[in-house]
Write a structure and sequence with these properties.
Blueprint (H helix, E strand, L loop, with lengths): L1 E7 L8 H13 L5 E4 L2 E6 L8 E2 L5 H12 L10 E7 L5 E4 L8 E7 L3 E6 L13 H4 E7 L3 E7 H4 L2 E4 L4 E3 L17 E3 L3 E7 L4 E2 L1 H4 L4
Parallel strand pairs: 4-15
Antiparallel strand pairs: 1-10, 2-3, 3-5, 5-14, 6-11, 7-10, 7-14, 8-9, 8-11, 12-13
Subcellular location: Nucleus
Keywords: Dioxygenase, Iron, Metal-binding, Nucleus, Oxidoreductase
GO molecular function, one term: metal ion binding
């Protein structure tokens, strides 16, 4: 089953305009070493570094805990509590290549978007068998979602496990019929949306963790 669930943040997480500014302010207040500059974006990692042997758990800051707890209460992680957050900052013209999130996380990804919209594109994975058709990014493209600012996006099941997702590095988005959720956003085909700086909170649950007190030999 494929689940694509999107709500405005006014409901489950109550992100009003003033709280939007507050969260962005907290993101910007993070010490400079907390930021990692990547190609097409920069990010902050909160909660620990996921690892096949187990993530060394770190306490989330209070300004993040409020929203990880609310999202967990929605049942997004099958009764588990979110314990990991990636904060991404995208300037206009920046994006991320098609990718999958991998097996280190519970198979659900939840994303709070602040500051700007984006288009999230989905792709079929590269087929490992021989094919006469060149497997380009264009040929593997499936659909797009218009991710609005101050929204919560929850991706589960096939959309998480089997398909890749990415964001084109452009300064504006021209909406097409391939954007499957237009009717719920108020936007229309052929609308042009200018991007501004977008901050996203990618909130997930890492099942395999190592508690600090275990490393210290405490009970």
């Amino acid at each position: 089953m494929v689940i694509m669930y999107m709500t405005t943040m006014a409901n489950p997480c109550n992100i009003a305009a003033d709280l939007n500014k507050y969260i962005v302010k907290e993101v910007c207040r993070a010490p400079k070493p907390k930021w990692t500059q990547l190609s097409g974006r920069r990010l902050q990692n909160w909660g620990g570094l996921p690892n096949p042997k187990g993530m060394l758990a770190e306490k989330l800051p209070d300004w993040l805990l409020k929203y990880t707890e609310k999202i967990s209460a929605l049942g997004a992680f099958a009764g588990k509590t979110a314990n990991h957050v990636l904060v991404n900052e995208y300037k206009p013209g920046e994006g991320i290549m098609p990718h999958e999130d991998g097996p280190l996380y519970h198979p659900t990804v939840t994303t709070i978007s602040l500051g700007s919209h984006t288009l999230l594109d989905f792709y079929k994975p590269v087929c490992q068998t021989q094919s006469e058709t060149p497997q380009t990014e264009e040929s593997r493209y499936m659909l797009s979602l218009l991710v609005q600012r101050r929204s919560l996006l929850i991706l589960q099941d096939d959309m998480y496990k089997f398909y890749l997702h990415g964001i084109h590095g452009v300064c504006e988005d021209i909406l097409s019929e391939h954007v499957v959720n237009l009717s719920s956003t108020g936007a229309q085909v052929c609308n042009t949306l200018l991007r501004s700086t977008r901050v996203s909170l990618t909130i997930r649950h890492v099942p395999k963790v190592i508690r600090t007190n275990l490393l210290l030999g405490k009970k």
